[in-house]
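User: quick one, fold this
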Amino acid sequence: MAHKLMRNIGIMAHIDAGKTTTTERILYYTGKSHRIGEVDDGEAVMDWMEQEQNRGITITSAATTCFWKDCQINIIDTPGHVDFTAEVERSLRVLDGAIGIFCAVGGVEPQSETVWHQSDYYKIPRIAYINKMDRLGADFYAVVKEISDKLNANPLPLYLPMGKESDFYGIIDLVSMEEVNFEATTYGSEVKRNPISEEWKAKAGEWREHLIDTVSAYSEKITDLYLEGKDIPVEMLQEAIRTQTLNRTIVPVFVGASLKNIGVQPLLDGVLDYLPSPWEAPPIHGIDVKTEETVVVEADEKEQPLGLVFKIQADREAGSLSFIRMYRGEIKKGTAIYNITKNKRERVNRILRMHSNRNEPLDKVSAGDIAVIVGFKLAQTGDTIGSEGKKILLEKMQFPEPVIHVAIEPKTISDQAKLKKVLELLKQEDPTFIVKENEETGQLIISGMGELHLDVLVTRVMKDFKVDAKIGNPQVTYRESISKTVTHTEEFHKIVAGKENNAGITLKVEPLTRGEGDQYVCNIDEKVLPREYQDAVERGVKNAFSSGIMYGYPSIDIKATLVDAEYDEQTATSFAYEAAGSLGFDAACRKADPILLEPVMHVDVMAPKEFIGDVMSHLTGRSGLIESLESKPSMEHVRASVPLAQMFGYSTALRSITQGRGTFGMEFSHFAKKEGGLS
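Assistant:
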């Protein structure tokens, strides 16, 4: 395969920018899907999970492959909702380029900002597509300005819209200086190019100047031709745009209305013309396990295999599907491969190329490509797989802590084991989903990133895996800490089976600043207390960190120091010192003015002007702190920080305040003291 003939791209956007519809059109025009599915009809191909069709949102980042002009395009569909941060993050890891989709009415919305900055972090070249030009209130030029202002990007329109709202009928190509029209009777499959008509000549001329002006800043050849008044060849212009896109100095802007079948084929051409192949993307870095040094991983098919598992999907029939991006070498079906993260060999039973929810078998997967491996038993998201001889770890992914939990139990006792198994499967798929058993009540507790996140997971348990379960109300995961320094002496005496167990220790506990975590320090030497007993105290204290002070929530930002100990050779036991450590920590913290900390969320609300007063007073009523208010042509954007406990049921409340026209996104910000304890 020629180097230039493959692209790994992601499509990222705010919820409702029309990302799934655009992906649908791409699959239709590249011949993979023979009829056009609409999200609104619940027939979109990429959203094959039943829930996605019901909710009209994309949850899992399905990877699918299609071909356009002999180039293989692997598309990774990323969720736009902030509850699915882990999905977006792990997709961005394996992309070489991305399409940012913006709604011509909504513009740059909060979630698109988040994802855009995440992709800045991974240094991903991007092109932008301004969609929904047929919608009431569409404004192409305002969105271009927002991309510049809000994303600190340098947007460069390569196409202009002809008309807008219900009068939007085609686009102007500023590179070839032609009008492009799409035949409505064939779902836009026939694309007609004509000379630019009189009414658009002035506008096209003005923006063509802007295009040449921007590109000439990076190309002397183009500057010379421009100053001499000569024609600039299309290939030369495209080459200059491509170079600067790959350098991330410009973002080419495309325009269309996917639902009306306008603008999708030029966008596909843009993927080929301006986004990198795996061999042009910057090489990635790994860590050599032996030397612990950073090494550069080049995309070379002849080298030892190296790949990253970027997603696990549980399939009822096939078991665990491991989505893998190969960076080097190749993997053949029927062979064994080494999981470097887990230090275990795994078997490659089958290799599949996915098309949303259909698949085709492959004999091998090579550097640069994306495929699914069936047969891995241990693999988890973020694992590196490769060869035992040359162990290189691709960097681990970092995922945030879950902040919300619910109790879940099966409707019948016989389903208990099945429920546990299903939850384990889902946990393997999603690193931000945590399952614990409450030792006192025997209840299963599941934790996640938000109400929607848990709601989706629970629905999957019931619908996809057919386990009937009952769910408690969502609960906030609080934390506990202390607000002053206290020194406490703990004596422990117990007779077990006729033997005395004695221990005496003095612990000092002190508060640390938020975010420092828990720390344990031992300040006595082995003459005062032998090493094995020091270790026992440490175990006791560290176990107590997680079991809380007053309410049983994990404690954070506390430093515990062992400052003194009493020791009697005859009656000292490890058991006694471990117990003293645990009980001593609890008692010391109770004296240290314990406080309860609650998760505070960063909330972005978008709503029409006429409702904004009500939206703000409602947020304040939920103990929110308004941080900023920003006006847009059709919407107002409020940023606030609100305790998570006050955000339950907010989506319903916002809908009723704004007559269904408001949207919001939220993500975890920090822990802060909860006033008034637990009510």
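User: anything notable?
Assistant: The first strand starts at residue 6 and ends at 13.
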